[in-house]
Amino acid sequence: MGLRLHKAALFATILTASLGCLQPGIDPVFFTLLSSAHPVAPADHGWIVGATQSGMVIGSLIVWRAGARLPFGLFILCAMLALLASLATARIDATAALLGIRASYGLGMGMIYTRAMSAAAAWRPNGAYGAVFLIQLLLSTCVALVAPAVARAADPGQALTALAIVPSVALGLMLFTRRAEQPAARATPRIAEQRHPISPSAWALAAASLLFICSTMMVWSFTGALAIAAQIDEGVIGDAVAIGSIAGALTALSVMRERALMPLPLTGALAGLSLLAPIPATAIGDDALFVVSIVLLNIGSTAIIIRCSGMASAASQDPFFRRLVACTHSGGMILGPVIGSILTSAFGDAGLLGGAIVTISAGCVALILSGLWCRAAPEKTDDLPVDRAESAGTSKFYHA
């Protein structure tokens, strides 16, 4: 494959992964539209998020375990399933039916995301995760600005229908990537997937990734409901998501480099504080403070998730483990909303805050343990760096 075509295919893979994980970034706006278009109570938002992420985690686990054995046509079917589910979301208003529809959407996008993200991470872990989050945040900004405008100009149902463009574009990108892959796949013999040892430090980083994503989603999935309860205007919510996404995009640019600017445990502690900001901000009910809290949440979550995921992927050359790191994203996305729903139902907002604090603290402990294990057992110098080892063959890139 020519270098120019290879770069185009790499960018298409990164963009596909960004679309695969776009839904969590637009959830506050999505649920505002959903509650306006259908009789869905804000208290049910967490369960709908849980249904979406349940499907996503199942899809991720399928790709994690089966890997390159899955035929490409299956991922085309996944994109079509997500497209149909997206269209049905705008037309069906029964909450029970919506749970199944959103689970189907999550299943399709979860499989697409895990395949694309693990393939992109074979290139350069921090750079790949940084690029995916950067594009996801920029797309979230566009949706946060455009979707409410469409809802005001037409109606919320049409704004929900317009979101079907996400799986449609993902489908087109995968077809392009497939065409770009075919010449190299014919020229390069398919290599059986090899397993590599995984260090305790890598496992700790993967655990930290799961915990910080879980705490992010625990707060993020209830942000819309908390804002509505505090009588914060829908336009303010959309503006906050847009401004927060821009701040997160700038953060992604700053952490895409492979060398960290500050110790990882310190990043985790600062990020943890920023993740908690929307809870007291919505309790106060001030619009400006709410916007600031969303900005802080986006900065903290973007920085720590990119850094943990990138370092975990770089800590092992094992493609099986690299797919597992991608799975921590969908796993955390379901655990966060479900745990948040349980705690909120049992203890109110105080339960949500307490659960987030415990999860963030566990993530910080995992980061500290990772550093201790890394110093106790330094990496072998005869191993190839992950980006060189995993991208030695073009066909391996596409079947990661």
TrEMBL record:
Keywords: Membrane, Transmembrane, Transmembrane helix. The chain crosses the membrane at residues 47-64, 71-90, 96-116, 128-151, 157-176, 203-230, 236-256, 263-282, 288-308, 320-344, 350-374. The keyword Metal-binding does not apply. Coiled coil: none annotated. InterPro entries: MFS_trans_sf (IPR036259). It comes from the Bacteria. This is MFS transporter.
